[in-house]
Amino acid sequence: MLLKNASILIIDDDPDVLTAVRLLLKTEAKEVLTEPNPENLRDILSRRSFDLILLDMNFNSSINTGNEGLYWLKKTKEFKSDAAVIMITAYGDIDLAVRSLKEGAADFVVKPWHNEKLISIIKDTLNKKEGSKAKAKSNAEMDSIVHKELLGASEAMEEIFYKIEKIAPTDANILILGENGVGKDLIAKAIHQQSMRTGKPYVKVDVGALTESLFESELFGHKKGAFTDAREDRAGRFEAADGGTLFLDEIGNISLHQQAKLLSVLQNRQVIRLGDNQPIPIDIRLVCATNVPLQELASENRFRKDLIYRINTVEIMVPPLRKRQSDIVLLANHFIQVYSNKYLKPRLRLAVSAEDKLMNYHYPGNVRELQYTIERAVIMADGDLLEAKDIIFSPIEIVRETEEEPKELKLSSVEKNTILKVIEKNNGNISKAAKELGLTRTALYRRLSKYDI
Question: CATH classification of 154-319 is 3.40.50.300, yes or no?
Answer without folding.
Answer: yes
